[in-house]
Amino acid sequence: MNETEKTVAYPSAAYFLQKANLLAPTLQRVDVHPVSLIELYQGTEDWAFREQAPIDQLFTRTFQKGDRVLIDFGTHCVGYVHLSISPIGSPPDAPAYLKVKFGEHLCEMAEDSSDYHGSLSASWIQEEFVHVDVMPTELDLKRRYAFRFMEIVIKDTSPKYQIKIDHLFCETVSSADMNAVPVISCSDPLLNEIDRVSVKTMHDCMQEVFEDGPKRDRRLWIGDLRLQALTNYETFQNNDLVKRCLYLFAGLCQEDGRVSACVFTKPSPITDDTVLFDYSLFFVSCLHDYYMHTKDLACVKELWETACRQIAIAKTYLREDGVLRDRSDWWCFVDWNDVLNKQASAQAIFIYAVKQACTLADVLKDEEKKREFEELSDTLIDGAKRVLWDASKGFFVSGAERQISWASQVWFVLAQVFSKEENEALLKRLIQKNPPVKMITPYLYHHFIEALWISGMQTEAIAYLKSYWGGMIADGADCFYELYDPADKLASPYGSRVINSYCHAWSGTPAYFIRKYLC
């Protein structure tokens, strides 16, 4: 440690959390009313629906034991449901017992939640069993729901009375204002629709922080934040929300200084015990991107030590040959693909983050760190070219089995260890050879689209964007999904689609591409 480092007083974790608290947004509230009653049926490929009756019939019908009604709100909602119930007939001599179920996607409404035995808790399934003892009553459901569809099942009343629903609406919440984003008009109508759904996805994930999904997990993940922030800069421009999230991560580091993969905000901010190699490095990326769009130098100065610490910790995973060790004792995300070896992707992400740290060091005029990071970047690139690049195959390989994957090539293109022309050739070879270790999530598809764009392959980027996110729209998406595999639409990393998130932050990035590169 030199004399300058000894005298610098860096802000404390408490200071960072105080800054984050001061940047807390005010949630906007808009009432959304249902549009129709629907009938669910099995279509040729998946569950679909047809309009059964206008919504007015919900408020004129009476219901008794065994009745059920499926309601369509016409759009994805995130918020709090309110309904009023009154008795019809004799005075109620027993409580009304209701089951209320919500779903973002029709598959959630079609499946029996009691059959779910997946890897995540069934408590994420959005359903309530409610006893109504006194009627008439205003029933305010306390949980926040993310849904388009709502089912009410009358489990029991008594033979002496029926119930009637007098009104129903959802008080939606978001820290973003849909009216603040100008509507674009590309020459391609599909791109306009993809942009619209992308903006809606972002809107519904922008709460007190950038949530990964308003249905599940409802927390701040830094991998999602990085992509949300990039899209936010092109749409809502709610830059204080990005800044708030940066300070939360800085104030809630692990004991060794690593930035956690995610943080919880309720009842008060607390860090999770999950740490991901790539996600910790993405703190550097988030800070870099934030500065490039805001020029907020004061924020960079305060968070610079936290950013540098992520690189210092990542260096401990390096072997003597300048390549990250391929071990199972540390976790790197990259994509939801169980067979993906992540050594090469992690190496490329490390290079990507170190280059961004060099830029920030230059901005801060921190010559010592700039030299350190430039030397580290050279070491990482040299190691990658000597050990991970297989010239005979024309691909980067990963792990002891020298696996060739889409993810490895995509991330090395983004890390720009080769020239633009070489990267273009690599991507064309990737598309032609189509290695079997494929992309699974919209998260990795985003990086693939970005790699195409920066390599001068705009035509291919647009085609893949339209095919992938356009495929979700063709399947009826109101918001874009956590997971979408066109070849396996039943796919879920958790054992069932009923637990998947159908409004998910890392999938809401098409507006970033469309507005940055096209409009």
UniProtKB/TrEMBL annotation:
Which intervals hold domain Glycosyl hydrolase family 78 alpha-rhamnosidase N-terminal?
44-171
Listed A to Z, the keywords are: Hydrolase
Entries under Pfam families matching the protein: Bac_rhamnosid6H, Glyco_hydro_78_N
* Annotated Alpha-L-rhamnosidase six-hairpin glycosidase domain residues: 183-517
Say if the entry is tagged with keyword Hydrolase. yes
Output the Gene Ontology terms for molecular function.
Answer: hydrolase activity
Q: Which InterPro entries match?
A: 6-hairpin_glycosidase_sf, 6hp_glycosidase-like_sf, Bac_rhamnosid6H, Glyco_hydro_78_N
GO biological process, any:
carbohydrate metabolic process
Question: Per its record, how is this protein called by name?
Answer: Sugar hydrolase
Q: What is the lineage of its organism?
A: Bacteria, Bacillati, Bacillota, Clostridia, Eubacteriales
